[in-house]
């Protein structure tokens, strides 16, 4: 079996890291808030499971069945017409009347619940067996801080992403290996499962495919749940950091090791470009919305060895960025191996 240790442009990374160390030496982290900015390497294993176990996974065989029929345009047109008619006939209510309408509403029911036979319902026993089955290592690499890497994983393999150096958040993209137009759809996945993912949740693909790309089969941070501020891990609320918004918010900022940039560079070797990079799942990132619905990040709770495992439901291309903030302290940078 191939045993690959990939180091991305280690020389340049070492040089850039030194520059950052010097530049930010005086900004040693002193606050707890800075913990989420800590960086560390990622470690990724791709493992295969026995064919007998793979065959037991219903979704692998059923993946094609998730393709949906085209919508009926005539139905949509008639629904739209009746809505317009209702809106025209009703008298507008005052704000007070409309506010009363918000009172005494029953507790909402999630829009998408896994019911018996639904593709959202994972056969937990089958997936547990997969997770616990013997494995063979087929690929392995350690991703240095401030870099990205893309790699392939065949359907039925397990991708294990771990944090060998402690707290680290990472931005993950996924595509169908044979068709980059089928790619991870973060917002629909958020609707179908939750704002933060965990074991047995699936990572769904974009339209018109709408299929599971991967299913989470293990999460060592499952215990975190929701913290006192409502933050949870494996975030689908936010997206990747990028140099464009940085330039908007801090005029003239020159920094190009954001997760977006790392992912763009990583996918180039597979013939993909910036337009192929999409909204991510922020692995190990603890986030939430405050009382006013504003996005916030709490310290990353990952420690050395924490990991998440994904079962590839299709042949996949994946790309991962090891996050790094220029505001991170020098102490955090020097702890990182560059390969
Ligand atoms: Zn980032």
From TrEMBL:
It holds the Pfam family DUF1989. InterPro entries: DUF1989. This is Meiotic chromosome segregation protein. Residues 142-317 form the DUF1989 domain.
């Amino acid at each position: 079996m191939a045993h690959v240790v990939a180091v991305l442009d280690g020389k340049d990374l070492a040089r850039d890291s030194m520059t950052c160390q010097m530049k930010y030496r005086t900004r040693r982290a002193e606050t707890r808030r800075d913990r989420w900015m800590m960086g560390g390497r990622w470690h990724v294993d791709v493992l295969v499971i026995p064919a007998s176990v793979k065959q037991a996974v219903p979704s692998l065989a059923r993946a094609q069945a998730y393709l949906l029929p085209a919508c009926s345009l005539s139905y949509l047109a008639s629904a739209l017409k009746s809505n317009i008619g209702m809106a025209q006939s009703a008298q507008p209510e005052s704000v007070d009347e409309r506010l009363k309408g918000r009172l005494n509403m029953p507790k909402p029911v999630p829009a998408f619940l896994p019911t018996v036979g639904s593709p959202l319902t994972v056969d937990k026993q089958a997936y547990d067996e997969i997770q616990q089955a013997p494995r063979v290592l087929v690929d392995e690499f350690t991703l240095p801080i401030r870099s990205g890497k893309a790699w392939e994983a065949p359907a039925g393999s397990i991708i294990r992403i771990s944090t060998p150096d402690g707290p680290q958040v990472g931005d993950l993209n996924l595509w169908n290996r044979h068709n980059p137009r089928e790619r991870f759809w973060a917002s629909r996945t958020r609707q179908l499962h939750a704002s933060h993912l965990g074991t047995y949740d699936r990572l769904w693909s974009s339209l018109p495919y709408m299929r599971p790309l991967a299913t989470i089969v293990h999460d060592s941070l499952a215990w975190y749940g929701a913290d006192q501020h409502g933050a949870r891990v494996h975030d689908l609320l936010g997206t990747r950091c990028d140099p464009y918004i940085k330039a908007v918010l801090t005029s003239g900022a020159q920094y190009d090791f954001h997760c977006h940039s790392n992912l763009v560079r990583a996918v180039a070797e597979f013939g993909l470009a910036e337009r192929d990079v999409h909204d991510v799942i922020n692995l190990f990132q603890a986030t939430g919305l405050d009382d006013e619905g504003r996005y916030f990040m709490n310290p990353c709770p990952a420690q050395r060895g924490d990991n998440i495992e994904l079962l590839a439901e299709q042949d996949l291309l994946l790309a991962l960025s090891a996050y790094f903030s220029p505001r991170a302290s020098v102490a955090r940078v020097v702890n990182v191996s560059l390969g």
